[in-house]
Give the backbone structure.
Amino acid sequence: MWIWFLEVHDAHVFCSRQFLGHNFTERQLWDFHNKYGASPGTLVLYADKPATYKSVLRREITKMNLSLLRRIFKDPGFHRSSHFITTIEPLPPGRLDFKIKIASQHVLKLLWEEHIQHEIEDMEYFYNQFLDNSITATSAGWIFKLRMHQLLMRQQTIRVFPILGHCRKANIIYNAPREWNNPTDLQLPNSVEHPLVERCHLLNAHYYHPKPTNLHAIDSLLLIHPPGKPSPILLTFQIIQNGVQPNVNVNGLCKINDLDIPPDICRYHVVVTPEGIHPKITAPMKYFRDEEILNEDEDEDEDDGEMLADGDGDEEMPADKVFPVFHFPVPMGELFAH
């Protein structure tokens, strides 16, 4: 029997099946907690009725306002609905001090849509509050991602920087920005937001949201055709709050080839971070190449991460299926500008 462990509201750890009974499968409990950050009592009541819980959660969130939300994240005990929205975790090394964070990314999305997405001052307030420590920084990262989706759909010019690659076996470890005087300016149009469906025909100036299970490590796609450029550009964005990021998922890259893409397209993979953070990304050489790759041996002790290549690392991909890697450092003074 699969026994998994779960952190709960009061920061105690317990075996789920042993304490919650056997009316649920471990998969039901895990999926429900992972999506909603649910407490043990909530798991017992709703783990086998997720649609009912989502209705209850939406109703409770609708009752809130931004003033109440600010107070809940300082003193969750004052309001009966706080357990739907917050999770409490202790600060290491003991349990006498604790931090309050958003229960899950899905809960934040509901809060965002109901209360936050058009309130820039409150958006900035919560972002700065959650940057306070490593426990709540995950919540800040979720806010950063949602805000960047808003900004990347605006008409603007963004400045991105090519990232220099270090060869490691069949992979490239992108971890060093090139000279900062060698940027590329990309002109973004006003875009329309769309879900990305299977076999989707990509349209210019449409900002696509893939499901996480479809294109792993890719948060959005945007097809643009900037003035003066001979070919359209497909931008795949990977949005992260800090310098630690997942490896590029080969299956996600392969699925991009299943989309209906113009034949003469260029492909750019853009890693988006707050300014001052230099991202590191491990990618299969066959998909991610650059015209200038460092072939260094002096850093052999450096952690190369998981081998990502699927098949022969020397296999060449057609030029139109290679993703140059760029870094878009977001100026923090512009993140919450109106």
